[in-house]
């Protein structure tokens, strides 16, 4: 029973690390998907005294993906709906050209400033509206959310690694007498520590399998899927091949590294 409890504590510790890593990956994908969603709704308005073709706009900055020329009809209707058609046509000719610039991706505040400067350096463009205040607030909020999740994941990682190290140390003490006897008979270090490595690798695999089952369930949960639909994004919550291999690799790597450190420390004491 005690042996099972020791195994369980190691598996839970490893599972906590894998859970934090997968949550961080989900947040990363969510932010990237939300940026794509924002990029489709975010645009820059440019005012020019002369007509500019879409190709000329695309050559101004690689961030510009598509250009729509805004019709002046709506503006004219607001000014005076009783104007004669001839006067309306003359007014259209005298009005500047308005362009709505769609971007290839959601830019950083620095990229927005750079785009604004590049556009204003174009001789025919007189004004640029980039809605920088709203953009900067949204972008900083995304970065803040990502940083909070990152700090949380790092704290969990550090604390859990210390717990795993302590658990493996306990297992080493339990097998210390057997390892010492094997050492007296000339057994190699890796052979004396085989039990420790076997324990760590088996528990790492079990923790990865538990993570696989947990996130497979979460990825298919209607409640979780509905939350992403409400936000307006669609992401891969858990990739059963790629994500599982990543979690399995991380779990085994952490276990082997910590077990190796314990073995090396034991060797130095001898």
Distance between the termini: 31 Å
Strand fraction: 5-15%
Give me the side-by-side strand order of the main sheet.
2-3-1-4
Domain count: 2
Helix segment tally = 11
How many strands appear in the DSSP assignment? 4
- The amount of helix comes to over 70%
Order of helices and strands: HEHEHHEHEHHHHHH
Radius of gyration over C-alpha positions, nearest whole angstrom: 30 Å
Q: Which spans have pLDDT < 50 for at least 5 consecutive residues?
A: none
* Largest sheet properties: 4 strands, antiparallel
Name the shape in a single word.
elongated
> Quick check: average pLDDT?
78
Assign the structural class, choosing from mainly alpha, mainly beta, alpha/beta, alpha+beta, or little secondary structure: alpha+beta
How would you sum up this structure, described in words?
The chain contains eleven helices and four strands; from the N terminus they run αβαβααβαβαααααα. It starts with a helix and ends with a helix. The chain has a four-stranded antiparallel sheet. The mean pLDDT is 78. 73% of the residues lie in helices and 9% in strands. It has two domains: 168 residues, no CATH class; 88 residues, Alpha-Beta Plaits (2-Layer Sandwich), CATH 3.30.70. It is of the alpha+beta class and 270 residues long.
Q: Secondary structure elements and their pairing?
A:
Layout: H1 2-41, E1 43-48, H2 54-60, E2 64-70, H3 73-79, H4 85-94, E3 97-103, H5 109-120, E4 125-129, H6 132-174, H7 176-184, H8 189-192, H9 194-220, H10 222-231, H11 242-269
Helix pairs in contact: 1-6, 1-9, 1-11, 6-11, 9-11
């Amino acid at each position: 029973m005690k042996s099972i409890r020791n195994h369980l504590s190691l598996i839970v510790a490893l599972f906590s690390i894998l859970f934090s890593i997968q949550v961080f990956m989900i947040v990363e994908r969510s932010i990237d998907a939300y940026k794509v969603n924002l990029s489709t709704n975010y645009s820059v308005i440019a005012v020019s005294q002369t007509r500019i073709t879409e190709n000329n706009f695309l050559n101004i900055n690689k961030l510009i993906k598509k250009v729509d020329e805004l019709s002046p009809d709506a503006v004219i209707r607001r000014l005076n709906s009783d104007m004669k058609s001839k006067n309306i046509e003359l007014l259209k000719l005298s009005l500047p050209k308005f362009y709505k610039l769609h971007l290839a991706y959601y830019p950083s505040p620095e990229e927005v400033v750079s785009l604004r400067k590049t556009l204003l350096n174009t001789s025919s463009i007189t004004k640029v509206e980039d809605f920088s205040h709203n953009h900067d607030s949204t972008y900083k909020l995304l970065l803040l959310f990502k940083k909070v999740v990152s700090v949380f994941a790092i704290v969990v990682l550090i604390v859990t690694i210390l717990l795993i190290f302590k658990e493996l140390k306990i297992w080493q003490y339990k097998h210390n007498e057997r390892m010492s006897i094997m050492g007296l008979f000339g057994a190699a270090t890796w052979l004396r520590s085989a039990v420790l490595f076997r324990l760590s690798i088996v528990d790492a695999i079990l923790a990865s399998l538990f993570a696989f089952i947990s996130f497979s369930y979460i990825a298919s949960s209607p409640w979780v899927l509905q939350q992403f639909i409400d936000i307006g994004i669609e992401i891969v919550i858990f990739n059963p091949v790629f994500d599982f291999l990543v979690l399995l690799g991380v779990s085994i790597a952490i276990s082997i590294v910590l077990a190796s450190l314990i073995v090396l420390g034991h060797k130095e004491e001898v």
